[in-house]
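Folded chain entry —
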Amino acid sequence: MTPLPLIAYRLLTRALEPLAPRLLDARAGRGKEDPVRVDERMGFTRAERPDGDLVWLHGVSVGESLSLLPLVERFVKTRPDLTVLVTSGTVTSAQILAQRLPAGVIHQYAPVDAPGVVARFLDHWRPALAVFVESELWPNLLLEAHRRGVKLALVSARLTEKTVENWARFPASARAVTGAFDLVLPQDAASARRLETMGARIDGLVNLKLSGEALPHDAAAFSRLSAAIGDRPVIVAASTHEGEEIAIVRALDGLDDRVCLILTPRHPERGPHIAQGLAREGYAFAMRSRGETIGPDTDIYLADTLNEMGLFLRLADVVVMGGSFAPALGLPPVGGHNPLEPARLGRPAITGPDASNWAPVTAALNSAGGLTLVQAPSDLAATVAPLLADPAAAKAMGERARRAAAEAGGGLDRLWAALQPLTPPPAPKRAGR
């Protein structure tokens, strides 16, 4: 029997469903939705569904979507008989996936959690297996997919205490929603405990963000930038957030004048705002989004573009991890970003005190001697300078990081094995006449 709160939620979302197009159009006007493809959020699509079985993989935003790529590639290579559908919920994730998904994989925006929309989406795509990398649970979508016999897996999930507190008010509903999953593999022990309190049966731990290959890059662009930089030492501040750019720039200002600092903001649309701050401080900088090049007098290269992190990390002698200094600057915490990205390329990295989203892997890299923790941007110069002065030491640190990253990345094989009982079997081959 369906718990009353879930019945109420279904009735409420059905009643509000007619308002969804107007709300989505308003979001599109603010750049939060893709105006060309906004109908996909309502379950409509121009894409045809190929014949045969289909596997659906979902990651809501950039980090979750990118973490799915190794699994997508495994399906494409190992089970070419299956159609792979990937959904995501943000414009940025769709832009990056358009460049990174293998040929033949279909991308759609995820449907909003309203009964009619969910039914329309499932009627069209008819998945046999759905794999979610999520931090939120959507009752209409999950329960309707379960009712239709779709095998459901929640993998590499990271649930916050706030999410669990919200569900704790409706324990029977929480058990019904988590009970829809055939496989639950959270990304860490804390999320596993939280899901267990909601009634989920935990089948192990998998963190997909620890899996995967080194980020790709454009070899021609690398050659051009490398030639422009010459023999200057390069520091890359990766995935920086509001307030961090100018703090890092100031902190490194006393280093050798030959140093080239590359700023790669997490949200490239902030480029013009960052540029204004650099101009006020009197720095000589070039913006990649404007096609400007690095010259002998360029102090800072503002790399305000999408999906080029692999390029900039390959140029780096030292990497400073953004998203990790907010508390030290009196700003709301971000939780850090993936330190495995520089580690897989053998680059030594430095992170600030706020790496809560990546605590286990940060600790592993630090313990291996491949990553250094500092407490504030003001500590960066004293940590970076010895690495720039001793390239052999920096290279050794990077190699330690590379080895630790390789040891951390075995989750994909465990996940693949766990998914096999839920994955449609290969269609039998027809005997030749």
